Amino acid sequence: MKVLKQKTIIYTVWLGMILSGIEGLQMYNPKTESWLQAHSQARYVILQVLLECGQDFVKVEKIDDPDGTPNLSLTVDRTKILSVGKPAIGKFLGKLQLYRSTADIASAKAMYDKYSAVTSDGENPFLNYRDIVMARKKPRKLFIQANTFLDDSKESVNLKNYEANVEGMIDSWIERFQDDNVDDILEELWAKDKHYFS
């Protein structure tokens, strides 16, 4: 049972990273042919490395949902993570480290630019896939801080949650800092901790 859970966790982490490589296309600007976020670019590079290693380890296919809207299907063969995926990433990182260690910027840039290129060519036209990714983009998730309050008898604590939207964020902030001199309190806390950041 423990081994099954471990394998499931490993598969889930790999699947999440590879999926992030596809979703990261949201951070690619086709007009300027540039990435807007380094982490998204790096995840896309990892996806490209794993697609390149072949052996049907990772597959990305354009499909149509039952309602006819285009979608992407991602398949990762969990039985090949250790035998195909891990060695491919290891080889890529080894090359990258060699280029860094020898200050071979030209080779490192050429390799990284090759893997981070978003084109409409080849078996996986990711520039075309980007339209599908953008059409299915979900709003950014908000984490809104809950507040605790003592009841009137001051014997029990009540937890208050807020809607996960801008209004909920403002309500949470206002109810957390009901004191009029909140700026003074925050400044006092800053002054108290300032020496840790100097």
UniProtKB/TrEMBL annotation:
GO CC terms of this entry: cytoplasm
GO MF terms, alphabetically ordered: dipeptidyl-peptidase activity; metal ion binding
Domain of life: Eukaryota
Entry annotated with the keyword Hydrolase: yes
Coiled coil: none
Pfam families: Peptidase_M49
InterPro entries: Peptidase_M49
Database matches in PANTHER family: DIPEPTIDYL PEPTIDASE 3, DIPEPTIDYL PEPTIDASE III-RELATED
The protein's name in its UniProt record: Dipeptidyl peptidase 3
Keyword annotations of the record: Hydrolase, Metal-binding
